[in-house]
Design a protein that fits this description.
This protein is about 85% helix and about 0% strand. The chain contains 7 helices and no strands. Helix 1 packs antiparallel against helix 2 and helix 1 packs parallel to helix 3.
Amino acid sequence: MVALGVITLFLTGFMLIFYAYLANHSEHDVSFFMSVGLISMVMNLCTNAGGIFGLAWLYLIIAVLFLGLGFAVDAEYSVAFYRSMGPWFKNTFTNTKLIGWQILSMVVFPVGIALHFVWYGKKDDMAAVCGKCGAWGLLLWGVLLWMILGLAL
């Protein structure tokens, strides 16, 4: 049941990324799906921390249902989201100029945020990459710590 809670947590995160893409690219209002996804993410973390893993089935059903409803909201941009995943991975992980800075900025997020401010006026593209990765790293570390400490305690 612990594994189901962790899998559901990652699936809910994927659902939030999916609806963030729809919010930025389509004309449809997906704020309901985003808000339910955020509430589901926080509740999933809290129930994992509380050891009530039976509710993980509910969060799994919500995530799968909402991923399916994305096609009903806007089928064209839903397909475009899934088609854009391959090129995004290719651009992100084959860019040898930036991959080291991206990994450093995400794993050690204070360094990424500091590099953003150091390079802001001089190297704007590097500053933006390090700042984004630092912000995502902060969010990732927060969720991982909450998840790990919730499961361990």
